[in-house]
Amino acid sequence: MMTLAVLAAVFARIGIGAFGGGLATIPFIRHELVIMQGWLSEREFSEVVSLAQMTPGPVALNAATYVGYRVGGVAGAVVSTAAVAAAPLAVIAAAAWLISRASGRPGARIEKMQKALRPVVAAMILSAFWMVLRPLGGDPRLWVFTLAVFGASRLDVFKKYPQLLLLAAGGAGMIFLR
Questions:
Q1: pLDDT tens digits, residue range 31-42?
Q2: Which of 12, 76, 147, 165 is found 20 to 30 A from 93 (Cα to Cα)?
């Protein structure tokens, strides 16, 4: 029972603190799961992020489901997934209620807040990028492969159908990175 409470608290913190979504959540997730709780090693964390990005849905939600299951079984997966989703929804509902009660033009305040958060989100995405690349280590093949996949992601066909890039990169990785 204590494990479920800890899972709920950890993933609620991740959900509330994960401004910007997507890659911007990765530093929060890493801090909680690797540094604070020790549930994952750096390598395992990198693998969880890769898996969470390849499966449909938000990274934090997918990571919560996987880690929750690993730590607390099916109940842990349910609790972690619910906590990571419910916490920010509660904050958004409260903020929306407060904004609706505010005088003046609430839309202008929201625009100012979003503009102020852009540099923070950009820094968090760069931090996440570095955390994912760090486990590549000194193997030059992995760095070349990473740059090739990044370059391919700029092609129109892969912008339109990113699933093709995942399939192509997975196939190429199995062939060339044995």
A1: 999 999 999 998
A2: 76
In a domain, 13, yes or no: yes
pTM: 0.62
Residue 157 lies in a domain: no
41 vs 97: CA distance, rounded Å:
40
**Number of other CB atoms surrounding residue 15 within 10 Å:** 25
Residue (of 170, 164, 176, 158) closest to 50 by Cα position: 170
DSSP string, 4-29: HHHHHHHHHHHHHH-TT-GGGGHHHH
Structure tokens at 74: 């099916």
The contacts of residue 35 (CB under 8 Å, 6+ apart) are none
Residue 102 pLDDT = 65
Evaluate if residue 136 carries a pLDDT over 80.
Answer: no
| 145 lies in some domain | no
